[in-house]
Amino acid sequence: MRRLLLLLCLAILAAARLSGAANAQEPSPGFVTKAKQVYMVEAKTGTVLLASNENQTFPPASLAKLMTMEVVFSAIKKGEISPDTVYPVSEHAWRTGGAPSGTTTMFAALKSQVRVEDLVKGVIIQNANDACIVLAEGISRSDAEFAARMTARAKDLGLARSVFGNSTGLPDAESHTTARDLVELARHIHREYPEFYPLYAQPDFEWNRIFQRNKNPLMALNIGIDGLGAGFAEGSGYALVASVERDGTRLFLAMGGLASDKERLEEARRVLEWGLSSFETKVLFRQGEVIGQASVYGGTSRYVDLVAKEPVDIYMPTNNPARLSGRIVYRWPLRAPVAEGQDVGVLRISAGDRVVREVPLVTAQPVGQGSLTSQATDALLELMFFWL
């Protein structure tokens, strides 16, 4: 029992140290936006700056093209296709997304042959529906099969609430996504495909002797936005996904449910300017600094120190910073032997009741397997904790 009480005291002390290291001042008033769904994060730390109905689904509309491009980029990266691969323009692609469709198009001629590199530029810069369908049919035989591949790929990336019914984002009853999924998708594209990402900021593209400027309306804001796109769906309103970089700080923002294109532009500017001007980076723990401890079952030591592989920092408000708290989460008990640098859990940093960052934690030192006596004692302690 004395050993049990000692364990409880140590756990309380560790929690108090972590809370004291992370606590700031009282929470600031929430930032209010007209968007029905919104999610914004700072790229380097992954700090969530703004979140409201971020997991509520809505039609992606043209923002589905972000997933279309991720599948294409992945196929290029794996060597499945190349930028020089050529695909034909089918009658379906031409009628559904080309000149006769009345939708955004790169005006690819019926039965012509178009390189993947040009199709990618058509999708990203001109928001071209014909280019999407040509790529979908070329890679997966049909737009429907490609859409199934988009959904499967989204699940692989952890975008659990996104389903895509086609490659274009044209009205489809099956298609839906969330603001959070869209931000995570944008961050993934920026991180994994740096060779393609600059296309989102390319100002124009000429194809088939037709010159067109970048169709992303957010580019006109001139506040450092370098991607990604906008969409509109009847019944759910105007949406956007944006990335902005200024003075080394990059933000990713997704918004949905806005009433008009004007409101979308105004809210995008207001939210991004707030995110860029009202926060600063604070270091909570240095790289290698002990953040807490995990109990070890059957080891030469009853505890092992937990550290992060990099500095634990957070993007915090400069005025009235929110009150932060930290919580170490791992599967108890950790069984010996334990290797140095072993992944064991995460540090969850919260502002109020909202988790703003999760940081993986590893062990700071190895712990060998203990004697039979220590293993028996730990077995008794584990049993007592279980019943408690």
Can you tell me about this structure?
The chain is an alpha+beta fold and 388 residues long. 32% of the residues lie in helices and 27% in strands. It has helices at 2-22, 64-77, 91-97, 116-126, 129-140, 143-156, 179-192, 261-277, 372-387; strands at 37-42, 48-52, 86-88, 113-115, 204-207, 210-213, 225-233, 237-246, 249-258, 279-285, 292-297, 303-307, 312-317, 324-330, 334-335, 343-351, 354-363. A six-stranded mixed sheet has the order 14-16-17-12-11-15. A five-stranded antiparallel sheet has the order 2-1-9-8-7, sandwiched between helices. Strands 3-4 form a two-stranded antiparallel ribbon. A hairpin with a 2-residue loop joins strand 5 and strand 6. Helix 2 (64-77) crosses helix 6 and helix 5 (129-140) crosses helix 6 (143-156). The radius of gyration is 25 Å and the shape is globular.
Provide key terms for this protein.
388 residues; alpha+beta; Peptidoglycan synthesis regulatory factor (PBP3), Domain 2; Beta-lactamase; five-stranded antiparallel β-sheet; 9 helices; 17 strands; disordered N terminus
Give a short synopsis of this structure:
This protein has 388 residues and is α+β, with helices and mostly antiparallel strands.
